[in-house]
């Protein structure tokens, strides 16, 4: 189906309270590495360039907690949800003006979806001739049909005939609006979009999904996936005539500048190196070679591009620790300004950024005040 030029809307139903989660706090608001489940889910879609709009239909508690200042406000819309998942999705569908738009519906409590997987689903929809596409995974465990009251096993089931359906699921706004409208008018509440569409004659197909894309349903699921990576980065530059040194996006006043192909910001360059290295995505030199394209490029611009690669892999920068090695100027006097700048550029809280200034004790090119260096250790999490 031709979808490249169509408006693409992500719908995230987040109004449930998770009765199986056994908590007074909605499970969407539980935190994974200092980030709430719902905010982690939203971020995957926010960083996807193919998504034009995100509608989050949520209960009041979730709407109050989701801090839109962390996101592109023009892209995200918060609306009240319904009493059921189906009603929450239907409420969001009513907000879509263009009935030819594509809708990608995703459970709020599947926070481990990656931007790359979202792009994969959209690309597959372009190639297929189905009314709806669904991420799914094979069943590997043995399946049994049971009596739900007595728990008696009635028979074994051939698992090869079954898949576990996941989200996101993609279809057209028109198809889904009609399917949910008919379902709800008949007092039927589909468990997912595919059930709604197929109930009224639509054709659905699976796209191979990931086992990491779990739905957090019970407290034990919070422990299922907290994958973290550690990266180490380094950068150094010689001094040249100038009027200051860029350190973490802040210009430290000095009689020299850095001699470099780009802006020479050793801290941001080392941070980029550490993130790319943690994900085995090469280093700053291979991603941003010394070509005309990157001449005089700002460190914050390079960070933004590199961080998009990190987000496309499904990871987020949680924390990093910086060491700047320079004989002069004394960096410790600008610590607050540098931390503030780094926090603004990376969206990492200052409390999660370490910054230390060292000298080389008059040894080597740094000790002779011919240049400076930076080392960064970064911590990434899915």
TrEMBL record:
Site (Transition state stabilizer): 261, 359
Short name of any one Pfam family annotated for the protein: IspD
UniProt keyword Flavoprotein, yes or no: no
GO molecular function, one term: metal ion binding
Pathway the protein acts in: Isoprenoid biosynthesis; isopentenyl diphosphate biosynthesis via DXP pathway; isopentenyl diphosphate from 1-deoxy-D-xylulose 5-phosphate: step 2/6; Isoprenoid biosynthesis; isopentenyl diphosphate biosynthesis via DXP pathway; isopentenyl diphosphate from 1-deoxy-D-xylulose 5-phosphate: step 4/6
Domain of life: Bacteria
Free-text remark on how the cofactor is bound: Binds 1 divalent metal cation per subunit.
PROSITE patterns reported in the protein's UniProt record: ISPD (PS01295), ISPF (PS01350)
GO BP, one annotated term: isopentenyl diphosphate biosynthetic process, methylerythritol 4-phosphate pathway
Enzyme class: lyase
Required cofactor(s): a divalent metal cation
Catalytic activity: 2-C-methyl-D-erythritol 4-phosphate + CTP + H(+) = 4-CDP-2-C-methyl-D-erythritol + diphosphate; 4-CDP-2-C-methyl-D-erythritol 2-phosphate = 2-C-methyl-D-erythritol 2,4-cyclic diphosphate + CMP
Keywords, ordered alphabetically: Isoprene biosynthesis, Lyase, Metal-binding, Multifunctional enzyme, Nucleotidyltransferase, Transferase
Its EC number(s): 4.6.1.12
Coiled-coil segments on the chain, per record: none
Residues reported in the UniProt entry to bind 4-CDP-2-C-methyl-D-erythritol 2-phosphate: 235-237, 261-262, 283-285, 365
InterPro entries attached to this UniProt entry: IspD, IspD/TarI, IspD/TarI_cytidylyltransf_bact, ISPD_synthase_CS, MECDP_synthase, MECDP_synthase_CS, MECDP_synthase_sf, Nucleotide-diphossugar_trans
Binding of a divalent metal cation, residues: 235, 237, 269
Span of domain 2-C-methyl-D-erythritol 2,4-cyclodiphosphate synthase: 230-378
HAMAP family in the cross-refs: IspF (MF_00107)
Subunit structure: Homotrimer.
Function: Involved in the biosynthesis of isopentenyl diphosphate (IPP) and dimethylallyl diphosphate (DMAPP), two major building blocks of isoprenoid compounds. Catalyzes the conversion of 4-diphosphocytidyl-2-C-methyl-D-erythritol 2-phosphate (CDP-ME2P) to 2-C-methyl-D-erythritol 2,4-cyclodiphosphate (ME-CPP) with a corresponding release of cytidine 5-monophosphate (CMP).
Similarity comment text for this entry: Belongs to the IspD/TarI cytidylyltransferase family. IspD subfamily. Belongs to the IspF family.
Identification of the protein by name: 2-C-methyl-D-erythritol 2,4-cyclodiphosphate synthase
Source species of the chain: SAR86 cluster bacterium
